[in-house]
């Protein structure tokens, strides 16, 4: 029988630094589904765990910092990570720990998904940690991907219209994030379109729009978008193209629902064509 031997550079190694979500729809599980279908090798530093299902999140714990240090050290000692992303970091001490480890080792460009609150209202980051996120993690971001609520919190302003979202994106860039994907509002059942504002390091900016899909199956959209951007960066795709690919990837996954869970379900990571 012929055995295929894959060279290391055929499967770029990508790392998620995130929380586990037991229902598989979001968090680290969504990141790893995305890495798998985008044909990159997924490595994970688990920071926290939430217990939940499609009805909601019911408990949450953070892992010990010593254990997280060991995860980073073991990965750095053996793997060549080409890009990474962050997800749920729970509190200030965890953010500081991740920042310290990221500075100590070479894990490539970092996509920061500044997870603060799920779209169903569960807080995944303590309010006292917002300043640490702004000061320490945002400046490390090659790309930052806040949702509407996270842009309001990080930029410390109310967002009422497109102009406000643009202002918030510029504020995040002034805080040190190189490239910003500021995701637009999508909780209005009358809306027909979703719009994300992209501000690149070069100063170029544009809107990414797509039709609004009326569905309860949109858990993990933000995780999957940021994971796909990280996967593309690891493959060598330029930032603008990585963002465009990720938007199409998530859009296709939203529009091809799978019947999993009884209430708020996952997106379909199998639906987009993998490259
Ligand atoms: N109902 C929907 N229809 C179409 N696109 C959506 C829908 N919900 C989210 N998206 C898209 O999914 C991506 C992730 O955004 P969002 O859900 O705001 O992130 P988060 O999961 O961090 O809250 C964005 O590009 C957004 O436009
Ligand atoms: C452990 C964990 N991390 C992150 C999330 C939220 O994921 P995200 O994709 O940012 O938001 P939703 O689309 O799920 O609201 C989570 N639920 N669990």
Automatic annotation (TrEMBL):
Q: In which pathway does it act?
A: Cofactor biosynthesis; thiamine diphosphate biosynthesis; 4-amino-2-methyl-5-diphosphomethylpyrimidine from 5-amino-1-(5-phospho-D-ribosyl)imidazole: step 3/3; Cofactor biosynthesis; thiamine diphosphate biosynthesis; 4-amino-2-methyl-5-diphosphomethylpyrimidine from 5-amino-1-(5-phospho-D-ribosyl)imidazole: step 2/3
Domain of life, per UniProt, equals Bacteria
Gene Ontology cellular component terms for the protein in this record: cytosol
Q: Which biological process terms from the Gene Ontology are attached to this UniProt entry?
A: thiamine biosynthetic process
The yes or no answer to whether the keyword Zinc is present is no
Family assignment from sequence similarity: Belongs to the ThiD family.
Fetch the PANTHER family from UniProt. HYDROXYMETHYLPYRIMIDINE_PHOSPHOMETHYLPYRIMIDINE KINASE THI20-RELATED, PHOSPHOMETHYLPYRIMIDINE KINASE
What name does this protein carry? Hydroxymethylpyrimidine/phosphomethylpyrimidine kinase
